[in-house]
Q: What sequence folds into this?
């Protein structure tokens, strides 16, 4: 069966001892950078630099020597690792995900380039895909797949039970959607509860915000929230 929902206005690795779990939207516990071809990651904490390169084949961990300020960025220099961070928008090369910094790493003499720092909001929400982290302040059930996709002028997804879809438009941080159409299937337990909370959130204006950790937060007119993480 299909049900029609009312027109909706949506506004729109450091060791565990050093990097405790973070809630979505919280400031990052460490500076992160990454690159592709070959794949590599870099984590900078107050005590160390941890580099994982060549798709995991090269691993270097050294004490943090402290940042040396340079024009428009900073450098870290050790015997095995040299890191140059320059402020300036950067794309990871594999998707349209954008970062605040361009990062160059010299690891045992081998130079790689990539991106790091704050994750910037998508230039256009069209073409992005997300999964839910929490709805109404409660983590989503791990056994209930969730999704939210923005394709052209339509959105679709599932908040843990039924599939929904509808048209949308974005203006000034507000995403207007609807009328939304959803299947009508009963889901016992948490799946139905979190879906109900999501549809309640979307009954009034919902604002779109993009914290620097790369999440998307939907906030309803009465303070209800849904937190999502990006897939593509």
A:
């Amino acid at each position: 069966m299909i049900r029609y929902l009312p027109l909706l206005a949506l506004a729109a690795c450091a060791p565990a001892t050093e990097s405790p779990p973070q809630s979505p939207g919280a400031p990052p516990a460490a500076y992160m950078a990454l690159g592709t071809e070959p794949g590599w990651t870099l984590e900078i904490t107050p005590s160390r630099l941890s580099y994982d390169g060549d798709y995991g084949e090269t691993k270097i961990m050294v004490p943090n020597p402290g940042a040396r300020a340079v024009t428009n960025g900073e450098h870290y220099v050790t015997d095995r690792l040299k890191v140059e961070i320059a402020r300036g928008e950067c794309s990871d090369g594999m998707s349209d995900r954008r970062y605040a910094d361009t990062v160059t790493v010299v690891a045992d003499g081998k130079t790689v380039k990539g991106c790091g720092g704050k994750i910037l909001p998508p230039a256009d929400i069209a073409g992005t895909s997300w999964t839910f982290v929490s709805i109404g302040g409660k983590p989503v059930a791990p056994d209930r797949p969730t999704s939210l996709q923005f394709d052209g002028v339509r959105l679709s997804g599932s908040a843990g039970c039924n599939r929904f879809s509808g048209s949308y438009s974005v203006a000034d941080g507000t995403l207007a959607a609807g009328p939304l159409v959803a299947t009508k299937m009963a889901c016992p337990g948490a799946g139905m509860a979190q879906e109900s909370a999501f549809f309640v959130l979307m009954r009034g204006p919902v604002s779109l915000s993009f914290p620097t950790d790369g999440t998307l937060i939907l906030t309803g007119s009465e303070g209800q929230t849904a937190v999502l993480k990006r897939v593509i």
Summary: The first helix runs from residue 190 to 201. Confidence is low (pLDDT under 50) at residues 1-21.
